[in-house]
Specification:
The protein has 315 residues and is mainly alpha-helical. The protein contains 13 helices and no strands. Bound molecules: fe (ii) ion (3 copies).
Length: 315
């Protein structure tokens, strides 16, 4: 039986998906220029075509629901989009950074469509379920293509930003960001499973921050040179984004999922760079932290059902 709450709010999920796709298109159009590797560039070109189709499919679903695409480009989701633009701009335009960012963004899309599919299912809207599933398959495939190009991205980045210390400093900035995200997220998640999970991962994240700092110091980096500014803490206002968004538990799950994959990509790149440089201690540290990040991402994914329920209940 269709759930009227889900029916009433499906347009919000569709408009969020539409904004995410529009933002993805902006990124895809310039990505192939900075990919630095022919295979990676082709992956971006292919996904640019797919993303154009996603935008159209979602726009059609919105029209079918009588939603107005011009009105539904809500300011709040715009903030999310802008945060990603700032994030992209705050990073050097290297193939490594591009790949990590895109990998995270694909998982933002995956998380968002997982939630949309669940809400559409509850609303009895099978057409939207089918569209979400179809797009999901392509987002997952793109994420896998990016995984297949981590090596290529490291090779292509080597001349500009290949130093182990540089990747470690980025990892450190990500962990600092993750601590803020998890601390803020707990309040939004309430007292459910997601909050418990975030609490658990917060403890791991503080440990990661400590380990990465130690490793940087072992490489002779001074704390003052451990520049968190590289990732623009101020530019990326995650806390403000989550606090402002009406659909907080659902968005929180999708964004936390994306963030974990940003960390995963960061450590995959660090591991490869360290291995190539013969720094096996750093490579081992990256591998160790990767297990935690992958575990956290899997646990978030296992709670998409819970997040969808919590999001609808919070209305
Ligand atoms: Fe997409
Ligand atoms: Fe995508
Ligand atoms: Fe993490």
């Amino acid at each position: 039986m269709p759930d009227p709450t889900a029916q009433a709010h499906i347009d919000d999920y569709l408009s969020d998906a539409h904004s995410i796709e529009e933002q993805a298109l902006v990124q895809m159009k310039r990505a192939h220029e900075i990919a630095g590797d022919p295979g990676l560039a082709e992956a971006f070109r292919e996904h640019e075509r797919e993303t154009e189709e996603h935008e159209r499919l979602i726009r059609e679903r919105l029209a079918a629901h009588d939603g107005k695409p011009s009105a539904v480009k809500e300011a709040v989701m715009r903030v999310g989009g802008v945060a990603f633009i700032l994030f992209a701009k705050a990073n050097p335009d290297t193939p490594g950074k591009l790949t990590a960012h895109a990998y995270s963004y694909e998982h933002l899309e995956i998380g968002s469509y997982e939630l949309l599919a669940r809400v559409a299912q509850r609303a009895g809207d099978q057409e939207t379920v089918a569209v979400a599933q179809r797009i999901l398959a392509q987002e997952r495939a793109m994420a896998r293509r990016l995984e297949d190009h981590f090596d290529a991205a490291v090779e292509a980045s080597e001349h500009e930003s290949g130093s182990v210390a540089k990747y470690l400093a980025d990892a450190h900035a990500l962990e600092v960001q993750a601590i803020a995200l998890l601390e803020g997220g707990q309040k939004i998640a309430g007292d459910g499973e997601l909050a418990a999970l975030m609490d658990e991962h917060l403890a791991e994240t503080r440990e990661h921050e400590r380990l990465v700092t130690e490793r940087l110091q072992a490489l002779g980096e001074k704390p003052s040179r451990i520049k968190d500014a590289a990732l623009g803490i101020g530019g990326l206002n995650w806390g403000g984004f989550f606090a402002a968004h009406p659909d907080t538990p659902g968005k929180l799950a999708a964004f936390a999922y994306a963030f974990e994959h940003l960390e995963i990509a960061g450590y995959e790149l660090l591991k490869r760079t360290a291995t190539r440089a013969g720094d096996l201690e750093t490579a081992a540290l990256a591998e160790r932290i990767l297990q935690d990040e992958r575990g956290a991402a899997q646990q978030i994914a296992a709670r998409f059902d819970h997040a969808a329920e919590a999001a609808l209940a919070a209305r």
